[in-house]
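notes to self, project folder thing:

trying the whole complex as one job this time. last attempt i did each chain seperately and stitching them together was a nightmare. two parts in total, labels are on each line so i dont mix them up again. if this works i'll redo the older ones the same way
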Amino acid sequence: DTAVSQTPKYLVTQMGNDKSIKCEQNLGHDTMYWYKQDSKKFLKIMFSYNNKELIINETVPNRFSPKSPDKAHLNLHINSLELGDSAVYFCASSRGTSADTQYFGPGTRLTVL
Amino acid sequence: GDSVTQMEGPVTLSEEAFLTINCTYTATGYPSLFWYVQYPGEGLQLLLKATKADDKGSNKGFEATYRKETTSFHLEKGSVQVSDSAVYFCALYSGTYKYIFGTGTRLKVLA
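result (full assembly):
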């Protein structure tokens, strides 16, 4: 059983388009995250949600809008895509305590042409 | 703010060589520390962690000790295998559902 799943795995689109990435976890965790990994493998947190409530928004452009319909899902919608948005986006989840392990999805590779 | 500094890669070793990947951190207090591994084409997965000073995390032959006096959490393995080739990330829990990751160190092990 996949613990954290993301769809799609690959996304190729034109500049200016709007796209969404979906994430689901079946671990019963309260906290979910979105990370962006650039071509040099640098991993940066974008958002974190706890019990469907936004906790962290790391100065991400407002073209990025996360939505958490329930504790098991955290989707990422991106408007007006730009070349610089090309990256691998990872969803993760954890129980939300300080020493907790994060469980990562397989990633979505977004390419903006 | 809190930060994590890892040694630059790539690190290339022969099979059965000794591995050290350095990691130091800056943080207020004593955060929990983690090592994650990312195999090609996959998401990150926890390798080991330590939650307080002098704790040693270990898994799959890898070890790291939480050293508060040197603010370090270096990753070591006595004998690497080709299957250990991956990118390794040091991370800390910065509080309020926020984790900070290092830049990652790519390890390549040659047969």
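what i see at first glance: Chain B has a mean pLDDT of 93.
need to look closer tmrw
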